[in-house]
Amino acid sequence: MSKEKLIRKFDKQSKVYEIRRKQQSERKWRSALLRSAKGKVLEVAVGAGANFSFYPKDVEVIAVDFSSEMLSKAKASAAESGIRATFLQTDIEALSFPENSFDTIVSTLSFCGYDNPVQVLKSLSFLCKPGGQILLMEHGLSSNRWIGGTQKMMEPMFKRLVGCHLDRDIMDILQQSNVHVHRMERYIFNTIHLVWASPK
Ligand SMILES: C[S@@+](CC[C@H](N)C(=O)[O-])C[C@H]1O[C@@H](n2cnc3c(N)ncnc32)[C@H](O)[C@@H]1O
């Protein structure tokens, strides 16, 4: 699917993401992960801004997404939560910040969307300061045979309808990237991964 088509798909879904943001879906996981955020934060694929209400109030967030509709909802969310944030509409697979720019990098539910998630994670690690942290909440392929098999079966339809991959192997992505994982929690038959990592 072309990037233009993908952006249109996410633009159209932005209202649903805003509703989910207001319902505070995934509250328990987002709150556990994001309370660790510090300093200058890069949040990639910010969507409708579901994370803003969970950040400590003293962070400064640079939020990126390629969907203008998602970004306008994310701006409202940051304002509601009183988080200092700036917004950038660009492709995360072509980010161009200098090395060691951020204290914290956040990605929630974004690795399903990229053509090359390993390359994205490597680039996020490059942008993170030494001693900084990379916080991830990603969904992916279950370690359970039956659930994993169903995810693989549904993958082409899901990609076409929603625009993201259902069967990303998050453990493999982490292993292939230049990050050191300090802590990981997995939920729902290991389909949801919370990760506290840093650049290697
Ligand atoms: C599944 S949503 C997740 C949104 C949010 N992070 C959350 O936790 O609810 C994926 C988001 O990634 C954005 N996205 C996907 N691929 C992207 C890319 N290559 N560059 C920029 N944004 C991208 C979409 O526009 C969408 O807002």
What do you see in this structure?
This is Methyltransferase domain-containing protein. It holds the Pfam family Methyltransf_25. Keywords: Methyltransferase, Transferase. By secondary structure, this protein is of the alpha/beta class. The chain has a single domain, classed as Rossmann fold (3-Layer(aba) Sandwich), CATH 3.40.50. It has 6 helices and 7 strands. It has helices spanning 3-22, 27-34, 68-81, 117-127, 145-162, 170-176, and strands at residues 40-44, 60-65, 84-89, 102-108, 128-139, 179-187, 192-199. Strands 3-2-1-4-5-7-6 form a 7-stranded mixed sheet, sandwiched between helices. It is globular. The termini are far apart. S-adenosylmethionine (SAM) is lined by residues 10, 17, 45-47, 50, 65-67, 70, 91-93, 108-110, 113-114, 164.
**Helix proportion:** 25-40%
What is the CA-based Rg, rounded? 16 Å
Would you state the CATH class? Alpha Beta
- CATH architecture classification: 3-Layer(aba) Sandwich
* Strand adjacency order, main sheet: 3-2-1-4-5-7-6
Uncertain runs are none
User: DSSP strand (E) fraction?
Assistant: 25-35%
User: Tell me, what's the shape?
Assistant: globular
| Beta strand count | 7
Mean pLDDT: 96
Helical stretch count? 6
Structural class label: alpha/beta
| Multimerization status | single chain
**CATH topology call:** Rossmann fold
Identify the CATH homologous superfamily: Vaccinia Virus protein VP39
> Which ions, cofactors or small ligands are bound in this entry?
S-adenosylmethionine
Number of domains: 1
| Cα distance spanning the termini | 33 Å
Please outline the major beta sheet: 7 strands, mixed
Written as H for each helix and E for each strand, in order along the chain, the element string is HHEEHEEHEHHEE
InterPro entries: Methyltransf_25, SAM-dependent_MTases_sf, Thiol_S-MT
Domain Methyltransferase: 41-132
Pfam families: Methyltransf_25
GO molecular function: methyltransferase activity
